[in-house]
Amino acid sequence: MNIATLLHMQxxxxxxxxxxxxxxADLTIRQPNHRILQLIxxxxxxxxxxxxxxxxxETLFGGMYHSSPMSSAVKSILTIGTLLVVLQAGPWIRxxxxxxxxxxxxxxxxxxxxxxxxxxxxxxxxxxYVGLEMASIPMACLIAFDKYRAGSAEAGMKxxxxxxxxxxxxxFGISLLYxxxxxxxxxxxxxxxxxxxxxMGALVFFFAGLGFKLxxxxxxxxxxxxxxxxxxxxxxxxxxxxxxxxxxxLVNILxxxxxxxxxxxxLLLSVVIVLTITVGNLMALHQQNMKRFMAYSSISQxxxxxxxxxxGATGTAALTYYILAxxxxxxxxxxxxxxxxxxxxxxVDRDDYRxxxxxxxxxxxxxxxxLFSLAGIPPFAGFFSKFFVFAAAAREGHWIVTFLALINTxxxxxxxxxxxxxxxxxxxxxxxxxxxTGRLGQLTLVVCLIAIVALGLVSPIYETLCQxxxxxFGAN
Amino acid sequence: MELEIHVFHYLVVSTVMLxxxxxxxxxxxxxxxxxxxxxxxxxxxNINFAVFNxxxxxxQLEGHFFSLFGIAIxxxxxxxxxxxxxxxxxxxxxxxxxxxxxxxx
Lengths: 476, 105
Known about the structure:
Chain A has helices spanning about 10-30, 35-50, 70-85, 90-95, 100-120, 125-145, 150-180, 195-215, 220-230, 230-255, 260-285, 290-310, 315-345, 355-360, 360-375, 380-395, 400-425, 440-455, 460-475, and strands at about 60, 65. Chain A is mainly alpha-helical. Chain A has one domain (about 5-475). Chain A has a two-stranded antiparallel sheet with strand order 1-2. By secondary structure, chain B is mostly helical. Chain B has one domain (about 1-90): Orthogonal Bundle (Helix Hairpins), CATH 1.10.287.3510. Chain B is built from 3 helices and no strands. Chain B is elongated and about 50 Å long. The termini of chain B are far apart. The model of chain B has no long low-confidence stretch (mean pLDDT about 90). At the A-B interface, helix 6, helix 7 and helix 9 of A face helix 1, helix 2 and helix 3 of B.
């Protein structure tokens, strides 16, 4: 063990350094420094993205930390997601209540990202647990960031209490697992996993704990309130980056640790998937508030992500690709919601979007394409990501679940189109005024738009992910 | 034989603690009481880790370390949760769940 081994965990080390750099930048640059800090953060994330190219399998600290081509790809995707969130944070962080706390915002975002990195490349339950908490505790601070807005405090309270509840359940599951196995290293566990009743209990507790984080259906009650109350930028971060990391951690542990119990968790997962997609869709149908609507939409999207997990090792590439496509579309939607909210004095209802086409045609176009991608309409990324997920699940023989998920895509198409109809067809006496999106906001929307269109058409992206999955999980 | 009975007794205690915590979390109206219930749940798993390590795998330290980390992380969580509850109190002048619920649907 020498200092050079730390180079193998370069993404985490770099991110930790970035946090310190930001801390000093926040201290030394004179207020108001929100604009400079935003640019510094964007620069740091770009540097991180450019240097994160580990493609070899590395195991550090006796198996505590395990980096693989797949986890490296996931980290890059999470970094891209964070970058898009930071790019669109401008109009919100500029508000007079927030602009003196811009440094804190970016530091907290980096801290959660660091936690997610540890979570995705954990090789031991302790590392996983610490990473998970490192991702969710600062997340609560981000959600309660608007100190003088009651909704934000309420959302933060709901998030932190359900996060603690879920991690307590998960911890109990891990402790039962430890009692039956005697080790907490992922690599040593599968040989002792035989599906005994205690291990079944452990699996259920563990799954319930992560189900809260992923907002799967029996455990989803906190999601709509949290998304509605949280600042819109944070809502976007929560729905995409946090969810993506938790999904990858779940697939990693289900395959690496609970692999021998596959037939047990496949049934559990199938029921939860069908429930998640259906309930998410049905609840989204009658939502007026756009942030609440996106929360229910994200619940049902989590179900599709899980469908890829059901496909086992072959599904991991589809899962990662789904997260990427979902990220582009969802962050575009959140960016538009945020812009409209900040420029109209807090309007986030669907009725406020009526006749938006007449005043802001370009913004409307972006939102429409993003919603099409979320619904899975052919030329866009969302279609291909859903296709790969369904194909992976069907190849493994999960016909019924795939069929029910397919029916649900039709329902989801209906409610996504409700928003589109409000913007193009419904008349309105006072539509939202015409406004100019800031330069960084425009950049976010353009990047998301390119991703929505190009991700599906540029096949090397999916092939790279497939290769990474093959190297990591030995799938074919 | 005696060994197993010891583990069993501890497990009964920790399981009762866990479900008391779950019951409390679901029924209490006061946010601080909910927080206390969650602490009960977290401590139940800490007991489990320590007991399993002490009785079943005496040669190792993994379980003990896990409970140490568990305690530290629970403290961090509580600190943030209490800060948020104070903020809730400042905004609503209440810490009862029925009053702190503007968002529904």
